[in-house]
């Protein structure tokens, strides 16, 4: 492992701390090194706060060392004014002579302009260190800017005999989830929810399970709830309409709910291009990633449209014999592990659809 790779790996480690809170910005990691010793590091703050480079520079106690240091960063420093000033300018102002970058920023307001600012100021710039690993870490941000759509993760739990839900007669009279997985798997799902900007479910999932779609089993930011309710079947009183977290109801009926303070209403035509149009709409709303949790019909619609990036599938030990069949997809199995008595498979889409 080279010196540059060693410090870029540290950048990637600390960049994980921002996942789930920085969107629509990427979660970047930055490290400042002087004489083979880390003197400062930082990661992207919650949206609107300091970027990784700013936090790293601020953390350096002896600022005179910056003139003889190297800055490592997972993504090209920004060059435009947004919620914060350009990071490239700050690097120049602090006279940092060397910058090592994992990945060029695909954002149309950056896309090489950050490196150009640095090089014009006489800074030595190295690009492409651990580029593959940086692309993996920044996959949500890259999908959003390169494919003009959110990064889409499908999640479901199925029984050992391939069912995602039991028949109605086997459910309790109370509207609540019917658990296939154990408590550890469910806690992991809540952790995942906190890592994505939005969570999406269909009408039947809401009517059958009355889910909250929050992160109550894990400390994390609750995602934006995206509720597909074509014909406005979901009555008041269900958790998804309680106003406790940002919610968008997606409907074919283009008029307001009575209580519009609790949620936003988005009109989309439910035709053969619905999933494509939904993805375009979410892109316009600056939604970087979506966690699709069901039901089977909604999940299969994303699969059939080939608009998904990864699937996280739990397989429980119990059987239903009858019920709603789990979705069917093809892709590349990238990970498989046991969570007590549950099995978890991670599948990547190796034939992505580009908008």
UniProtKB/TrEMBL annotation:
Binding-site list for Zn(2+): 51, 78, 87
Single GO BP term: riboflavin biosynthetic process
Transmembrane segments: none
Cofactor binding mode and count: Binds 1 zinc ion.
Residues annotated as catalytic: 53 (proton donor)
Cofactor: Zn(2+)
EC number: 3.5.4.26, 1.1.1.193
Reaction(s) catalysed (UniProt annotation): 5-amino-6-(5-phospho-D-ribitylamino)uracil + NADP(+) = 5-amino-6-(5-phospho-D-ribosylamino)uracil + NADPH + H(+); 2,5-diamino-6-hydroxy-4-(5-phosphoribosylamino)-pyrimidine + H2O + H(+) = 5-amino-6-(5-phospho-D-ribosylamino)uracil + NH4(+)
Binding site for NADP(+): 157, 179, 205, 209, 295-301
UniProt cross-references to Gene3D superfamilies, sorted A to Z: Cytidine Deaminase, domain 2 (3.40.140.10), Dihydrofolate Reductase, subunit A (3.40.430.10)
InterPro entries: APOBEC/CMP_deaminase_Zn-bd (IPR016192), CMP_dCMP_dom (IPR002125), Cytidine_deaminase-like (IPR016193), DHFR-like_dom_sf (IPR024072), Eubact_RibD (IPR004794), RibDG_C (IPR002734), Riboflavin_Biosynth_HTPR (IPR050765)
Entry binding sites for substrate: 173, 193, 213, 216, 293
Keywords: Hydrolase, Metal-binding, Multifunctional enzyme, NADP, Oxidoreductase, Riboflavin biosynthesis, Zinc
Pathway: Cofactor biosynthesis; riboflavin biosynthesis; 5-amino-6-(D-ribitylamino)uracil from GTP: step 3/4; Cofactor biosynthesis; riboflavin biosynthesis; 5-amino-6-(D-ribitylamino)uracil from GTP: step 2/4
CDD domains: Riboflavin_deaminase-reductase (cd01284)
Functional description taken from the UniProt entry: Converts 2,5-diamino-6-(ribosylamino)-4(3h)-pyrimidinone 5'-phosphate into 5-amino-6-(ribosylamino)-2,4(1h,3h)-pyrimidinedione 5'-phosphate.
Family note: In the N-terminal section; belongs to the cytidine and deoxycytidylate deaminase family.
NCBIfam families per the UniProt record, alphabetical: eubact_ribD (TIGR00326)
PANTHER family noted in UniProt: 2,5-DIAMINO-6-RIBOSYLAMINO-4(3H)-PYRIMIDINONE 5'-PHOSPHATE REDUCTASE, DIHYDROFOLATE REDUCTASE FAMILY PROTEIN (AFU_ORTHOLOGUE AFUA_8G06820)
Protein known as: Riboflavin biosynthesis protein RibD
Naturally occurring in which organism (per UniProt): Maribacter aurantiacus
